[in-house]
Design goal:
single chain, about 300 residues, alpha/beta, Ribosomal Protein L15, Chain: K, domain 2, Four Helix Bundle (Hemerythrin (Met), subunit A), 2 domains, 4-stranded mixed beta sheet, about 45% helix, globular
């Protein structure tokens, strides 16, 4: 299973030695990880330094390197130039995809996200029937902004009536920032491996957002992060501690139901989903492999009604 490596201790030096990423402090090696086991590298710490080989070797493996600010949200990402063997053809298809197809893709993404929100609420004893109804109301391109309607109900129902999603706030909001950063890195890795470009989204189109497609395709998985954060808050976590980071970075191992009697870890399911998006761009036909609810054995939800 690919690992999300988080550098949180100040003043560390990163290098590559014989196929390993090495982590050192004051000239003493503190640990090493096989390069082939790394799915993403996230750097939070001040004073981190690295050799050029770290960038080269990870980029050769299509591993994104994400650099975060003090609020645990990403501020920069090193993006590999080479990905899938058909990268050129897929990027041309991505650029030339028709508007009706992108609207249909976005409809399915939004509906999948709302259904996943309903699963999370139901697993925590909440009422999820309205979310299934909202998901069925989503039209091509979501012109009625059903996604926002669902969000207004969802946050209060999950975290309590006093909660407000604020990216600059501490506590649960900071934990959500970090969890979404991990998820964004996982999705970005899959996008690179599929031969697509993260800047060209199907819905997000902000000129300053270099990861519009990543932000589009991570939407159905966001509620899984929300559940992990809810569990951390319930366990007494007030900030982005080392233990909280460890728990959130392990989200790639959460099992998801594929809908065909099989299950896949989130990291694998993301790859399948992104590949299906790439194929839809190339063929001009929508055929997405969207995530379903967490599998019973995943242990993610408190209960599985």
């Amino acid at each position: 299973m690919e690992r999300v490596v988080d550098i949180e201790t100040d003043g560390l030096f990163l290098a590559v030695h014989r196929g390993f990423l090495t982590v050192s402090s004051a000239g003493e090696e503190k640990g090493r990880i096989p390069l082939d086991d790394i799915g993403a590298l996230i750097v939070h710490a001040h004073g981190t330094s690295w050799s050029n080989s770290v960038m080269v070797r990870l980029s050769e493996r299509a591993v994104p390197i994400v650099i975060c600010g003090s609020n645990h949200a990403p501020v920069a990402c090193i993006w590999p130039l080479h990905g899938h063997h058909a990268q050129g053809a897929r990027m041309r298809a991505q650029i030339g995809v028709s508007k009706p197809l992108t609207k249909q893709i976005w409809r399915q993404i939004v509906a999948a996200k709302i259904r996943m929100q309903g699963h999370v609420l139901s697993g925590n004893g909440g009422q999820a029937g309205a979310f299934d109804l909202l998901a069925r109301k989503v039209r091509s391109g979501d012109p009625d902004n059903i996604e926002a309607q669902a969000a207004r109900r969802y946050w209060k129902a999950l975290f309590g009536p006093g909660f407000s999603r604020d990216r600059s706030a501490e506590g649960a909001n900071a934990l959500l920032n970090y969890g979404y950063t991990v998820l964004r890195a996982v999705v970005s890795r899959a996008i690179c491996a599929a031969g697509l470009h993260p800047t060209i989204g199907v819905f997000h189109a902000n000129r300053t957002n270099a990861f519009a497609l990543s932000d589009d395709l991570m939407e159905p998985y966001r509620p899984l992060v929300d559940q992990l954060v809810l569990d951390l808050v319930a366990a007494g976590e007030q900030g982005v501690s080392a233990e909280a980071k460890h728990r959130l970075a392990a989200m790639t191992a959460v099992d998801l139901d594929n809908g065909d009697g099989t299950i896949s870890p989130l990291g694998v399911q993301v790859q399948r989903f992104v590949h299906s998006v790439a194929e839809s761009f190339v063929t001009g036909r929508r055929n997405l492999v969207l995530p379903l609810r967490p599998a019973v054995r995943s242990g993610l939800l408190p209960s599985d009604p």
